[in-house]
Amino acid sequence: xxxxxxxxxxxxxxDFDVATIRPSKSDSLRTIRSAGxxxxxxxxxxxxxxxxxxxxxxxxxxxxxxxxPGWIDSDHYDxxxxxxPEAAVILQQMPEEQRRRQLNLRLxxxxxxxxxxxxxxxxxxxxxxxxxxxxxxxxxxxxxSAQGQQDLGIFVRYNGQAARMTAKGATLRxxxxxxxxxxxxxxxxxxxxxxxxxRYDFVLDWIREPAFxxxxxxxxxxxxxxxxxxxLFTALQEQLGLKLVNTRGPVEMIVVDSIERPTEN
Length: 265
Hints:
Oligomer: single chain
Number of strands: 13
Shape: globular
Largest sheet: 5 strands, antiparallel
Helix content: 10-25%
């Protein structure tokens, strides 16, 4: 069965122009994003919600997205959503973060249209790791727009236990979101409490704990090698002038008020 939504005639700004949703024929989750297309294979409705609302992926994801019937975890779909060429050209010229936000907004609209998704938000006090500035202050380089708006974000490469994070034009909220999904946070949400709102460039080298290291090698020869070096918490403080403090704070939850399986049209 094929579920197709063609919106060429009555396209609303911010929607995908064509979106196809079908029961998955894939056997591994995969997401492919470009300026003109979003393709997601073997995904659940919960995963779609997580992507649309930019919820960091953690072991406690079900606690961050609450409610909804059991099939939001058991039914798997392949989604192929496309944007008109002229709109794709405009998106391509945007900075990476802004482009991702626009795709997320379109995915939210798709969920509302095709899955009849309705949600509301609420905050709950939980244990969190708060990023704060260390005693001697931050060691960060301000990002300059003269460097261009391409390839902004946080990128991580591994070589066994060794890891290198390279950030270009990243905010500390971006760093908090990345750390939230990192296994060594133990499933706790990470929040930014530095008060620093600008964009920064930085490089962070650390050694993963053996329990979390995969032995996988990615990246290039600049990736640090060997088993010597600081652990993540220490590296953040020594190299970036930031510290992670275990505390309590508000964590935003999404509550699913209603959702339906997509129907053929």
